[in-house]
Amino acid sequence: MEEERKKESEFRIKIDRESDSYEEFVEQIKSSIEAKDQSHLKSLLYGAHPADVVTLFKDLEREEELYLFRLLSIEDQAYSLIKMEEETLESFLEELSVDEISKTLSHIETDETTYLLSYLPSAKRELVLANLSKTDSFEIRSQLGFREYSAGRLMSKDFATVSITDNVRKGIINVRKKAKEIEDIYQIYVTNEDGVLEGFIPLKDLFLTPINTKIAKITNFSVFAFHYDVDQEEVANTFKKYDLVSAAVTDDLGRIIGRITVDDVLEIVEEEASEDILLMAGVSEDERLSTPILQSVKRRIIWLNVNLLTAFVSSSVVAFFEDTISKIVVLATLMPIVAGLGGNAGTQSVTVVIRNIATGDLSFSNWWDAVRKEFTIGVLNGLALGTVTFSMIYLVKGNLTLGLVVGTAMLVNMMVASLVGSLVPILLKGMKIDPAIASSIFVTATTDVCGFFFFLGLATVFAKYLV
C-alpha cells in the first residue's frame, strides 16, 4: 500500500503542468503511443490514478487519447470517463464502440451509468442498453425517466436494506450479500414489509449489536429522505446544512428507490457555483476552454446586445442634459464617478443576495431582512463616500455647490443601487427565473440611468452656482 501511494505521488509530480519536466513527460507518452510500445507506456503510467490520466488528454490528439484510454483496465476506463469534461466526454463517447461502452458500465453505479448515457445520441444509447442485462437495462431506463437535475437522476440504485421485523443476524447476512455489489456502504436503510422507508442503522451499530437483537430496537427513525423529483440544489443545501454523508430517495408511496452520497453532492456544488459565476457575467454555463470560438460568440452576443440596449437608455438620459453639460464642461469628467460607484455597490448587493439564495439562507420568508440590511449598508456607504467625494471636489475645484451636487448624487445612487441590487434577484426568483442570469444587467442599467439623472438633474437645478 505504501509503495502504491509513493508511485501515485511520483506520477502527480510528473503531470504537474508547472514543472519543468511536464513537456518532456508528455513527449515520452506521445513517442510511446506512436511506436505502439505498450510495455513502455504502462511503465510511464505506473501508479497513475485514472483522473490523473485524464489530465494528460488535454495535450494529446484524439487518436492518442483513445490509444491511452484502451490501455487502461475496464474499471479505470469507467472512472476516467466520469472524470472527463462534458464536451470531451460527448465527443469521446462517439468514438467508442457500443461494446466498449457497455463493458465500462458494469464497473460503476447506476447514477454514474445514467450520467454517461445522457451524453450518448438516442440511437447509440438504445444499442448500449440492449447490450446490458435485462435487469440493468430496466433500472437504467427507469432512472433516465426522472427529471434532469432531480434527486431521481442523481441517486444510485445500489443500497443496502434490512427489514424492521428481522433480527441483527439476518440483517448482517443481507448486508454481506449486498456489499459485493456496492462500492461504499454508509448506512443500512430499514424498511417495512412493503418497502416503505422507516429509518436507518449506521453500519457500525449493526455489526456491534448482539445478533439476536431486533432491528427495530437499534433503528434510528430520524432518517433523511428526498422525493425523487426534488431539485438537486435543494439536495445539496440539505446535505450541507445537516452534514449528511448519505440520504435515501423515495417514491410517491415513501418506498426507498435509491440513495444519494456526499461525493455526488460535491459535484453538484461545483456545478451550481460555476453556473452562477458564468451566468452573472452573461456567459453560458456550458462554456469551456475547449468550446469552439464561434459557439462562444453566439452564446455571449445575446447578453451583450441587451447591455447595448441599456447603454442606449443611459446615453439618452445624458443627451437630455446636453445643454447643462455644454455650459458646465466639468460635469462630463465627474459623471463616471457617480455611475461607476453605484454600479459597484449594486454588484456587491446582487452577489451577496444571490449567494444567500443559492445556499438557502434567503427565502421568501425573510426577504425583507435582506433588503433592509442591504439598503442600510447602501445609506451608510453613500454617506461615507458622498462625504469623501464632496471634500475632494471642494478641495480640488474650490466650488462648494459642485461638491454638494456630486456628493448628494453619490448618496442617492448608492441607496438606489443597494435597494435594486437586493430586490432584483428576489423578484427574478419569484418569477422562476435564475437570478444569476439577468440580475447584474438590470442593476447596472438602473444605477447608470439613476446616477446620470440625479447628478445631471441636480446640476441643472443649481447650474447658476456651478458656473
Ordered list of secondary-structure elements with their pairings:
Elements (H helix, E strand, L loop, with lengths): L1 H13 L7 H13 L3 H7 L5 H7 L5 H10 L2 H10 L2 H10 L2 H8 L4 H8 L4 H10 L2 H11 L6 H4 L6 E3 L4 H12 L7 E5 L5 E6 H6 L6 H4 L6 E3 L4 H11 L3 E5 L5 E6 H19 L12 H28 L1 H6 L2 H30 L7 H31 L2 H31 L4 H27 L6
Parallel strand pairs: 1-2, 4-5
Antiparallel strand pairs: 2-3, 5-6
Shape from CA axes?
Answer: extended
Helix percentage: 55-70%
Radius of gyration: 30 Å
Number of distinct helices: 23
Structural class: mainly alpha
- Unreliable spans are none
SSE order: HHHHHHHHHHHHEHEEHHEHEEHHHHHHH
The separation of the N and C termini measures 82 Å
Strand order of the largest sheet: 1-2-3
**Mean pLDDT score:** 84
Largest sheet: 3 strands, mixed
Task: Describe this protein's structure.
The chain has 467 residues and is mostly helical. The chain is built from 23 helices and six strands. The protein has helices spanning 2-14, 22-34, 38-44, 50-56, 62-71, 74-83, 86-95, 98-105, 110-117, 122-131, 134-144, 151-154, 168-179, 203-208, 215-218, 232-242, 262-280, 293-320, 322-327, 330-359, 367-397, 400-430, 435-461; strands spanning 161-163, 187-191, 197-202, 225-227, 246-250, 256-261. The strands form two sheets. Strands 1-2-3 form a three-stranded mixed sheet. Strands 4-5-6 form a three-stranded mixed sheet. Helix 13 (168-179) links the parallel strand 1 (161-163) and strand 2 (187-191). Helix 6 (74-83) crosses helix 8, helix 9 (110-117) crosses helix 11 (134-144) and helix 17 packs parallel to helix 23. The longest helix has 31 residues, at 367-397. The protein is extended. 33% of the residues are buried. The mean pLDDT is 84.
